[in-house]
Amino acid sequence: MGAQIPLDLAFTDDHGLPVTLAKYFDGTKPILLTLNYSNCPMLCSEMLNSMVATLRDVDLEPGKDYAIVTVSIDETELWMKAQSTKRKYLDLLDRAGGADGWHFLVGHSASIDPLAQAVGFGFKKVEGGVDYAHSAALIFCTPKGVVSHYMAGIAYDARDIRMSFLDAGSGTIGSLVDQVFLSCYYYDHTKGTYSVEAQTVMQYSAGLTLLAIGALYLWLRRTTANSPHPSTSAEAT
Question: Where does 10-183 sit in CATH, by number?
Answer without folding.
Answer: 3.40.30.10
